[in-house]
Write a structure and sequence with these properties.
single chain, 26% strand, 2 domains, ConA-like_dom_sf, 7-stranded antiparallel sheet, Jelly Rolls, SPRY_dom, 331 residues, Butyrophylin_SPRY, alpha+beta, elongated, 5-stranded antiparallel sheet
Length: 331
């Protein structure tokens, strides 16, 4: 009788332990997939960063060509520092990929071990019941963190002094407050207001301040600054048409040169359009300078606090008047 009771208790205990092991296995499968997703993203970042670094080198060269000849030495130093930083960041990304690959293999090995444990006798399961949770918890604690590639924004000597020669004030004279900002399904129209017909991506629930120029630029060079200190999500730049009707404002994204800032999962993403491009530089925290050289077909953005370049669109032919534009979303 005592033997039967003992066997029954052991059987129940074994079932309980097997259920716990199955839960741990499910957790490990999920962790393995998460690491694989992170690994894929990290691998993509390497290629994106290499391409971005090449583009950024060209932008920097263009900036220095506008300066006097005595800045050539600073240009060379700037490029060398960028090259060194890119190499260091690429190495960090490769090391991060390696760590993630190692953890993925560790998770797979632990999963195989747990699979084997499920088929072991009850007494052996009892011996390892405390070891399994501690090992999986340790793996979770050692989960590698993804690298956030961000290049230093080196100052360009004298650039703000030069740009201030073309300064214009009060360029954002038309203003309004709205509650929704949306982008059409084909990414060609940005809509601000309550009309969401045909919209696939929306930033809702927060009030936004929108301002634009009453007068469009058709020639010459123009520079102005925008304060984004108190906003995490914003859009600024120049665009062709701004259409207003009732509570709706829309702009044609194909005729716009814009800089975007968006906060996603406690990380800030800085990007531009035409074509969409992530900017791997330090996010500006204060004033942003916008320079429109209409005759030469360029639009550039500057971090005023650091005196550095954020991004410069490659020269194009402007066939339409362009208006300054700003959208600040409430924190």
């Amino acid at each position: 009788m005592e033997f039967m009771v003992s066997s029954s208790v052991s059987l129940k205990l074994m079932v309980i332990l097997q259920e716990k092991l199955l839960k741990r296995m499910g957790s490990l499968r999920k962790m393995t997939q998460e690491v694989q997703n992170s690994l894929n993203q990290e691998a993509n970042k390497t290629q994106w960063l290499e391409n971005y670094a090449a583009v950024r080198k060209v932008m920097i060269k263009v900036q220095y060509q506008r300066m006097h000849l005595f800045l050539r030495e600073e240009e060379q130093l700037h490029l060398e520092a960028l090259e060194k930083e890119v190499k260091e960041t690429l190495q960090q990304l490769r090391e991060s990929e390696f760590r993630m690959t190692q953890q993925k293999e560790s998770l797979k090995e632990m999963y195989r071990e747990l699979t084997e444990m499920c088929h072991k006798p009850a007494m052996e399961l009892l011996q390892v019941r405390r070891e399994v949770p501690s090992r999986t918890d340790l793996v979770q604690m050692q989960k590698p963190q993804p690298v956030n590639p961000e290049l230093t924004s080196w100052p360009v000597t004298g650039i703000l002094d030069m740009l201030n020669n073309f300064r214009v004030d009060n360029v954002l004279s038309q203003k309004t407050t709205i509650h929704n900002v949306s982008l059409s399904e084909d990414d060609t129209t940005m809509i601000y207001g309550d009309d969401h017909h045909g919209v696939s991506r929306e930033l809702q629930g927060a009030e936004s301040f929108v301002a634009w120029g009453a007068v469009a630029f058709t020639s010459g060079r123009h520079y102005w600054e925008v304060d984004v200190t108190h906003s995490s999500n914003w859009i600024l730049g120049v665009c062709k048409d701004i259409l207003t009707s009732n509570a709706v404002i829309s702009i044609d994204s194909e005729e716009a040169f814009l800089l975007f800032s968006m906060k996603v999962n406690n990380h800030y993403i800085l990007s531009t359009n035409s074509p969409p491009l992530i900017q791997y530089v330090q996010r500006p925290l204060g004033r942003i300078g916008v320079f429109l050289d209409y005759d030469n077909g360029t639009v550039s953005f500057y971090d005023v606090c650091r005196g550095s370049l954020i991004y410069s669109f490659f020269p194009s032919f402007f066939s339409s008047p362009l208006k300054p534009f700003l959208c600040l979303r409430s924190p």
